[in-house]
Known about the structure:
By secondary structure, this protein is an alpha/beta fold.
Amino acid sequence: MKLIVGLGNPEKRYEKTRHNAGFMAIDRLADKFPPGAAPSSRFQGACVETQIGPERCLLLKPLTYMNLSGRSVAEAVRFYKLDPLADLIVLVDDTALDVGQIRVRSAGSAGGHNGLSDIQRALGTEAYPRVRIGVGAKPPVVVLSDWVLSRFREDEEAPLKASLDAASGAVEAFVRDGIDAAMNRFNAPPARERPRNTREGGANEGGSRGEAGPRGGNGGADGPRGPAAGSKIEN
């Protein structure tokens, strides 16, 4: 079993925002590898099982809100008794990469991204693969949290589609051939990656520190909503 996790925030108001690039990538994978059953609510998220090559795979969207993503991921990892380094890959937004770029990593720090930070906390390790999906740097006059919660512009739709296709291909390569093969085939040229701005939580490995806060008194999501049938994993 391979666990494929896309990070984002639930609720309609966050659909197709830059911070939900991970959710979009999961939907692309569900389109490419149609699941055999309807999505379900498990592991504090929306998930569906599918087959990629010889492997059973679980596509998971945590519904805990971005900054509590580790709760969902760790629950699924424990249930299936997975090795995060070999069996888990996380799809996440990144403001250090242009829209249209991706970068595959075998491990690494959270780089200030609250979703990755919570996964690291919950798993007790930063040694798990991830695919960083470029969402573009914030304009100088825009607050970072507003930028990552904004929607992609019309002129960004074509490169966004290309990056989601590439992310899907990278996940398939990881599942079939391992993380080294995925990095060799899909990594963007390092020279095109912008310098990281760690001030104001800035552009970083997994996106940004600007998160949508959880609602409800428990500090988490309101609770998973039952996903609808179909290739898109409803959140």
